[in-house]
Every structure is written in C-alpha cells, then in structure tokens.
Design a protein that fits this description.
- Chain B: InterPro entries: Bact_solute-bd_prot1, Chitin_NgcE, SBP, TAT_signal, TAT_signal_bac_arc.
- Chain B: Its main location: other.
- Chain B: Belongs to the bacterial solute-binding protein 1 family.
- The complex is a heterodimer of chains A (335) and B (489).
- By secondary structure, chain A is an all-alpha fold.
- Chain A has a single domain, classed as MetI-like fold (Orthogonal Bundle).
- Chain B has two domains: 172 residues, Periplasmic binding protein-like II (D-Maltodextrin-Binding Protein, domain 2, 3-Layer(aba) Sandwich); 213 residues, Periplasmic binding protein-like II (D-Maltodextrin-Binding Protein, domain 2).
- In chain B, helix 3 crosses helix 16, helix 3 runs antiparallel to helix 17 and helix 12 packs across helix 21.
- Classes of the chains: A mainly alpha (335), B alpha/beta (489).
- The interface between A and B is large, with 50 and 64 residues.
C-alpha cells in the first residue's frame, strides 16, 4: 500500500502549507487530521486500485498465458502471444487504422469544433454589440449537440443505412442519384479501401457537437473588451480568431485533443456495429478494440486478447504523454 | 501497512494463487471490497479441482440406465433464439418430468449463452445442460480441448427412451453423432437437422415458365432469361456472410468429383482447395458475378437486407439452409402469393460422379453436458428424453425444423412449403447426403478466413486462381498453428 501512504503524505503537506507555522491544538484540522484525511482518501484510492489497477495487472499477467477464458486454470507461455501478434497481418491492419483515426479524427473534429464554436460565439457582426454569434446561433447550438444525445449504437446503425447500397435503402447513394450525381455512388461498405474513412466520418460527426459546446464555454469566458479593443484596431474575423480566440482557449483545445486521441484509439463500438466483428470486407476496417473482442470472444483466446490489450495500452499511454508534452504552450492570463 | 504489492520480486509472481493472496493482503487495508479480487477473472476458487470428482449417481437399473440421481435438480440453459425456448418448457420437460417427478428442472433461457455462462465455466460451476447456440455461443472446439465437456458415449450406448432394445445411437440419422465427435469421442448432441440447398422464388419461376435448372448450362440459360425480365437471378448474403456461397460451391464440386475432396479439405491437406472440381465450381460462381447475375449492390449489403429483397421478389435464387423460411417469415408474409422452394445444386457437367439429388444436410443446434456439472447424469437423461420420438416430433411441429431422430418427421404434416420441399429433397437424396466438418472443427478458418476469400471471388476482386491461393493460405495458417487441436476423418 505504498501508493496510499505516499498520496496521503503529499496531501497532508498541501493541507498544512497555507496555515501558520504553529497550529493550535484546538484548530479544526488538529489532532483528528489523519483519520479524517484517510477516511476520505482510502475509498477512492481503494476503488482505483481494485477496479483500475488490478485489471491492468491481471491483463498483463493473462497476456503471458494460453488462457481460453473458459477454464479455471492456464499455462504460462512466455512471449508466445506477443510473437503471434507480431506475425498477425490483421493486427497490423488494425494498428494502421487506429493511427489513421488518431491523426485524422482529432484534427477534423477540433477544426470543425473551433470553427463552429467561434461562429456561434464571436463570429457574428451586428450593430448593437461588438461581439456576438452569427444569426440563429442559439438554434445551431442545439442542433450541433444532437449527435451527442444519440447512443453510439444508434449512430452506428443509422450510418450503416446511410452507406448501404441504394436498393437496400442507402441514404447517401439515393441522395447522390437524386441530385444528379449518380456517377459518384459507390458500394461504400463493400469496398475495402473506403471502410476506415467511413469510420472517420462517422466518429467526427458523432464527436463534433461535444467540442462545439466545450469550446463555446471556453470562448464565453473571454472578456468582451479584448475583442472590442481588437475591433477598434481594425482586426478582421480571421485575425481576432488567430490572435485572440485561439490563444485564449488553447488550454481547452489541448485537453480536447488528448481526450479525442484516446477516443480515437478505441473506435470499437462504431466499427463493430457498422462493419461487424471481422472489421468489414477483407477485415480492412479493423481496429484494435475489435481485434481484442474477436480474439477473446470469437476464438476463445483470452491470453492473446490480453496481449493485444497490452499493445493498445502502451500505444494509448505513449500518445497521451506525447500529446501532453507536444502541446504545451505559454499560458495567457486573462486578468 | 504492507509494502508487498510493490516489492514483490518477479519470481514470486510465478504462482497465480500466491500472487493473488499477496494482492488480497495488500488490498485488505483498502476495504472489504478487495475480497472480490479473489473472485475476479483470474482468481480461481479454492475448490477448483474437486467438482468433477464427485459425480452424483443413482442406482443403475433398467428404468434408469444412466444411473440418474432421482432426487437432485437439473439445471438447464436453452438458447432463446430462432427456436425460442417453448419447445423445452412445453414439450421436453413434461416428458422428462413424467418419468422423474422428483427431479426439479431449473430452466433458464438465455440469448447470449457465453455472456451468461463463460464466467461460470471459468469458476468451475457450470450448469448441467447447455444449448450452446446463437451469436454468443462458446467455441465448442475450445471447450472440448479444455476438457470442459462431458463424454456422451454412455448416453448413445444407453437404451432409447421409447424402446429399451434399441440403443440411442441407432435412433439417430447417420452422421449426427459424428458431427459432435472429436478424436473419436462424442461430446456434443446436434439435435436439429438442417437441409442446405438453393432456395428459389417458386412463384416467379412458375409464372414465367422458367424450368428448375438441373445442370449449370441450364442455370445460365434461366439466369439470362431472368435478367432479361429485369430481375436479379441470384442473391447472396452480402458483406455479412458471403461464405453461404461456399455451400453450393463445395456441394457442386463434390457432385462432380465425389466426397473425397471434402475429406482432403477437412484434413487440411495441401492443395485441397486447388482441386480441379473445386476450381470449376468456383469459376461458375465467379462467372455469375462477371455476367452481372448477382443482385446489384449485394456485395455492400447486410445479409438480412439481401435476403429480404429476395423474399420480396427482387431476386430468384438464394443459397441457404432450411431455416430461411423462419428467418424471413415477416418478408414472406407480406405477399400471399409468394412461395419458396428448395432445389439441389445443378450438376456442373454430365460426367459428375454423384447424382443431381445429392444434398448437403447436417445435424446442427448443439447441446452438451459440462464435464464439471453438478449433475451430469441428469443432463444426459434430459438429452435422452429430448431424443424420444414424442420429443422429436413435438420439436418439429413446434419450430418447423427437422430433428436428427430417425423418422421423426414422417407423418408430421409440414405446412411450410419451403420445409416440405426440403423434406422431399432429403427423401430423394437417399444415401447421397454429404457434409463437411472443417467449419465446426476450425471456426476461424471458415470465418473470417474462407469467408473473406469467397467474398472477394463473388465481387470480382479475386479470380479463381487468387481465390484458391487465399483459401490455401487460410488452410496453411490453421495447419501450422500448434495451438489449435487438429481433427481428421
């Protein structure tokens, strides 16, 4: 329980610092301090150890076994699962797809989120106020949030029919034909090279609304007089966005970016529902999450599934750390 | 406070229990919740190996050939899917209870079998009888190689429910026991009996005077005619399951060259998929795609959408098993005049070694008794009751599916036109019933393996040579994977 002890010590130091050097015995945080802190600290730390850390440790342990998930015993087989993973072409397809999701979905989502949010909050020009959203922004705000209200399962099923062939009720192809662009129709879900890009579109569509709301909140906390000053100096929308809005919401963008990247490493629900357990035609739309599910529940290889899970853990953590470091930028104080 | 969690030396991790004990000790200060550690995924119970040893047994007698303990409950799990669970509660359980009034049946119906039972297997406390079916079924081969499935030899050797002079073994259709056998030991009872073939829109065929093709040349003529009417000749199960087309593919090849080619495939022999007959058959199906005879856009469709379009008259031929009539019941009911029928696959050439009537039929819908069950004999006795003539007929009447009990569909009025045509085809086939086993021996070989190759063949992304190469690669992968237990026949 080293973690508990360390965390407790750190916490108590923080608590002590702002107080005068000689604490009086009768102060509210006096003698009963440690039991008090421990009582509040132990349950969350305990829950964290039990439900977060112990599964990680167990998963790593299982990844070195041949456990089928059905028995109560198993054998340790060293790095066999990792060797199998290295030689498994399907895993490389999944990693490639996860990387595509990781690079494209956050960029697209954050770009659109920032664009929409700034249009809604500071993009408009009206005579009365200097800083306002475009006309009808209160309606758009609600509309953008719609996808967030839908469950991923619903989103997956809807988009399966957006991309279905026209004869099976495909919405996209029907629309293309109706507006005279019949030449652009494709068997979207039947063509291996499209699959991952379809997932990109669906994930972006599903996430953008949340980031619009997140960035809107950040933008509303920017003092209006900054904008007014900029406008007096003759700045246009692009300049105010680049020089004022973006720097002042950068912290939020950074958080959003990390969060987005972690979500993009997942993609399980959308892929599983839209493309099926094999990752679609020729497995071309596979992602690691689906590969784990397949190994564990379709081929009864829990050991192998755990090994893929460890790979995913390493990738996700590396990315989170890289993003946190790479995006660090001078903080701007508002006041 | 203990520091063991973080200071545990690597070598001490080698035993699982010790590791968990240490975690539990480490967690003891955390709160009562940590006791769960010992019961989560890797925390085996203390009584791991005891369960199997004590198998409760009653007195073996003429009335009780399996020695069922007459006072202990039986816990059964039925997959609540296409067949529902009414056949169990309304037909089989009354038959069982009539003979064993003191045995309590704990009936459970589950849609996701693995979801409900996987943890119980891992904890060594499985039920006594499992209908391991549906999307959430557990991998039977893995269960067997993990030693979790009870040997059913005693059941099949026991006298049958209806006639003590005939053993259960002899009341089943040929091949039914083999389907559930691994390394010579029967483990799984496959109760339902499925007939495979090409299902066609009989209404359209009759209206337009199209003959039911018996050779591939005739098939192409009919297809050309159908296509001229603006209807798609063929449909298959789209992106979801192009592997359904493997069934006509392998069946036609077998009619051409004999059942030995299937043995080679099942035994994972090198070059099995490159056999001339299989190439010819694959070429025929590839050619349908080249001629544009598959429903437009089918390669991008969900299987239910594709089958639905077929049932609504957008296409004429569809490969499937005898469940399709149940599966598409809604679409079929939309049109009063729609009638479907099954035909055996046409002959690829005149010098085929097996007759046109040859069909693929197989026992399916698996039931097994877990080896670590509390009352495995009770589970086996329940199977014996299912296999009674009354139980089998009741099943066929209730869920419109055949059973693997010999003669159980005789005299049963089958109202469903599709199933009755399948019954006729089965009778016409006589001895010429074929099947292959690799799909159940090596599930991942069929799906995603061969499934993806055949998908590419049908949408024209691979030609016959590339298809053969991909199938051979899939077979090689299974052959060279030491972690997969191999079967042969």
């Amino acid at each position: 329980m080293t973690q508990t002890g360390l965390a407790g010590a750190a916490q108590s130091k923080d608590v002590r610092r702002p107080r005068p050097k000689r604490a009086r015995a009768g102060s509210p945080m006096g003698r009963g301090k440690y039991p008090f802190i421990l009582a509040f600290l132990l349950p969350p730390v305990g829950l964290y150890l039990l439900y977060m850390l112990s599964p990680y440790v167990q998963a790593i342990q299982i990844s070195f076994t041949d456990w089928s998930g059905l028995t109560s015993s198993y054998n340790f087989i060293g790095f066999d699962n990792y060797v199998r993973m290295w030689n498994d072409d399907q895993i490389w397809t999944a990693v490639r797809n996860n990387l595509i999701l990781l690079l494209v979905v956050p960029v697209l989502t954050l770009f659109l989120g920032l664009f929409f949010a700034s249009m809604l909050n500071v993009g408009g020009r009206s005579k009365g106020a200097a800083v306002t959203g475009v006309r009808g922004s209160s309606i758009y705000k609600v509309v953008y949030f719609f996808p967030m209200v839908l469950s991923v399962v619903v989103v997956g099923i809807i988009f399966k029919y957006v991309f279905a062939p026209e004869t099976a009720g495909g919405i996209l192809n029907s629309t293309l034909s109706t507006i005279g662009l019949g030449g652009l129709t494709q068997l979207w879900l039947g063509e291996p090279r499209f699959l991952i890009w379809i997932v990109v579109v669906v994930m972006t569509w599903g996430f953008v609304g949340f980031y619009v709301v997140l960035f809107s909140a950040a933008m509303q906390s920017i003092p209006k007089d900054i904008y007014e000053a900029a406008l007096l100096d003759g700045a246009n929308r692009m300049t105010t966005f680049r020089k004022i809005t973006l720097p002042l919401v950068w912290d939020t963008v950074q958080v959003g970016w990390v969060y987005m990247a972690i979500q993009a490493m997942d993609g399980f629900a959308v892929v599983h529902i839209m493309l099926g357990i094999n990752g679609g035609v020729d497995g071309a739309g596979d992602v690691l999450g689906v590969a784990i599910y397949r190994a564990a529940f379709a081929s009864s290889r829990f050991g192998y599934a755990a090994a893929i899970g460890v790979l995913m853990l390493i990738l996700t953590m590396t990315i989170a750390i890289l993003f946190m470091r790479g995006l660090r930028r001078e903080k701007v104080e508002l006041a | 406070m203990t520091h063991r969690t973080t200071r545990t030396p690597q070598s001490a991790l080698s035993t699982r229990r010790r590791f968990l004990q240490q975690l539990a000790i480490g967690g003891a200060v955390v709160g009562p919740g940590s006791a769960f550690l010992a019961s989560c995924a890797t925390g085996g119970g203390d009584d791991d190996d005891d369960a199997a040893a004590e198998e409760p047994q009653g007195e073996v007698s003429e009335d009780n050939p399996l020695g069922v303990p007459t006072d202990q409950p039986v816990e059964i799990y039925i997959f609540d899917g296409g067949f529902g669970d009414g056949y169990a509660t309304d037909i089989h359980q009354p038959i069982f209870s009539e003979r064993w009034p003191d045995i309590e049946i704990n009936h459970h119906a589950a849609v996701d079998i693995a979801g409900e039972l996987q943890a119980r297997f891992a904890a060594n406390e499985p039920p006594d009888f499992v209908n391991n079916s549906g999307d959430g079924q557990m991998d039977t081969s893995q269960l067997i190689s993990d030693g979790l499935v009870h040997d059913l030899t005693e059941l099949f050797d026991a006298p049958s429910w209806d006639d003590p002079s005939v053993p259960v073994r002899d009341t089943l259709v040929p091949g039914a026991i083999e389907m559930g056998t691994r390394d010579g030991t029967p483990y799984v009872l496959n109760y339902a009996f499925t007939v495979f073939g090409i299902w066609y829109n009989k209404t359209l065929m009759d209206e337009n005077g199209w003959p039911v093709p018996t050779t591939w040349a005739e098939m192409l003529d009919v297809c050309a005619d159908i296509a001229d009417h603006g209807i798609a000749p063929w449909v298959y199960q789209g992106v979801t399951a192009p592997r359904y087309m493997n069934w006509p593919l392998l069946t036609m090849a077998t009619k051409l060259a004999g059942p030995e080619i299937l043995v080679a495939i099942d035994n994972l022999e090198e070059g099995a998929w490159g056999h001339e007959a299989i190439r010819e058959s694959a070429h025929a199906l590839w050619d349908l795609g080249q001629k544009g005879y598959y429903l437009e856009g089918v390669e991008g469709m969900e299987f239910r959408d594709a089958q639905g379009l077929w049932a609504r008259g957008e296409a004429v031929f569809c490969p499937s098993g005898s469940w399709i009539e149940n599966e598409e019941a809604d679409a079929i009911a939309e049109d009063e005049t729609f009638e479907l029928a099954m035909m055996p696959e046409p002959l690829l050439s005149d010098d085929a070694v097996m007759p046109l009537e040859t069909i693929r039929a197989t026992a399916g819908e698996p039931y097994f008794v877990p080896a670590q069950a509390n009352n495995p004999r009770g589970g086996m006795e329940y199977m014996r009751a299912m296999l009674s003539m009354e139980g089998a007929r009741g099943f066929t009447e209730m869920v419109t599916s055949f059973t693997s009990v010999l003669g159980s569909s005789e005299g049963v009025e089958i109202a469903a036109p599709g199933l009755s045509s399948a019954q006729a085809a089965l009778n016409a086939a006589g001895e010429n019933v074929i099947n292959w086993f690799y799909t159940s021996w090596y599930p991942t070989m069929e799906n995603p393996g061969i499934d993806q190759a055949t998908g590419a063949l049908l949408r024209g992304a691979a030609d016959v040579d590339e298809w053969v190469e991909r199938c051979e690669d899939v077979a090689r992968e299974i052959r060279e994977d030491d972690s997969i237990t191999k079967q042969s026949r």
